[in-house]
Specification:
Largest sheet of chain B: 6 strands, mixed
Number of strands of chain B: 11
Largest sheet of chain A: 7 strands, mixed
Strand content of chain B: over 45%
Order of helices and strands of chain B: EEEEEEEEEEE
Oligomer: heterodimer
Number of helices of chain B: 0
Distance between the termini of chain B: 36 Å
Number of helices of chain A: 0
Structural class of chain B: mainly beta
Helix content of chain A: under 10%
Helix content of chain B: under 10%
Strand content of chain A: over 45%
Chain lengths: 117, 111
């Protein structure tokens, strides 16, 4: 039982390059999320998917796109990377968003450390 | 004003002492409250959740919630050097779809 798996763990891009961050969960969770974490800024939501087939913008969606490929997989794409997108990216998943309790908290992947030069 | 506020710290306590971490939130519709621990270079891991007013204890950890005052706190008793980490407060609204995180408080427990 791997939980939430993110790939790659590290990536260096040149400005203008594109890439896709992959995320997969094996916990049968309905909802999946992409966050970025920057020093002093905490975790900020980029996009989320409440259920398979739906995606919605979060707090900082500009410069990103997402795809909920199936219930397990939620990818994040940078079409034209910029230095401002240098960050640590976390994917997370959870059960039904309307619940409460520990089961409705997030399980996080191990993160992708992205540097754009 | 951020929706979830935490003092960034660092909060320094001696080994064996009680560490008290605080968090305030602005959305009165918030229903569930979570504390995550994040070691340097690692991902956040859930350590406590609470949704009813009062105290909830789990081992050395106690979460406290006061919805009228819109604050939630985490107490760590008998603090250990291994508790040194950043603690993230997260809040979930019943109407909303996501967790909103505070900026985190860095805790340092000195031997």
């Amino acid at each position: 039982n791997a939980g939430v798996t993110q790939t790659p763990k590290f990536q260096v891009l040149k400005t203008g390059q594109s890439m896709t961050l992959q995320c997969a969960q094996d916990m049968n969770h309905n909802s999946m999320y992409w966050y970025r974490q920057d020093p002093g800024m905490g975790l900020r939501l980029i996009y989320y998917s409440a259920s398979e087939g739906t995606t919605d913008k979060g707090e900082v969606p500009n410069g990103y796109n997402v795809s909920r490929l199936n219930k397990r997989e939620f990818s994040l794409r940078l079409e034209s990377a910029a230095p401002s997108q240098t960050s640590v990216y976390f994917c997370a998943s959870s059960y039904s968003i309307r619940g409460r309790g520990a089961n409705y908290g997030y399980t996080f992947g191990s993160g992708t450390r992205l540097t754009v030069v | 004003q951020k929706e979830v506020e935490q003092n960034s710290g660092p909060l320094s306590v001696p080994e064996g002492a009680i560490a008290s971490l605080n968090c305030t939130y602005s959305d009165r519709g918030s229903q569930s409250f979570f504390w995550y621990r994040q070691y340097s270079g690692k991902s956040p891991e859930l350590i406590m959740f609470i949704y009813s007013n009062g105290d909830k204890e789990d081992g050395r950890f106690t979460a406290q919630l006061n919805k009228a005052s819109q604050y939630v706190s985490l107490l760590i008793r008998d603090s250990q050097p291994s508790d040194s980490a950043t603690y993230l407060c997260a809040v979930k609204s019943n109407a909303g779809n996501m967790l909103t995180f505070g900026g985190g408080t860095r805790l340092m427990v000195k031997p």
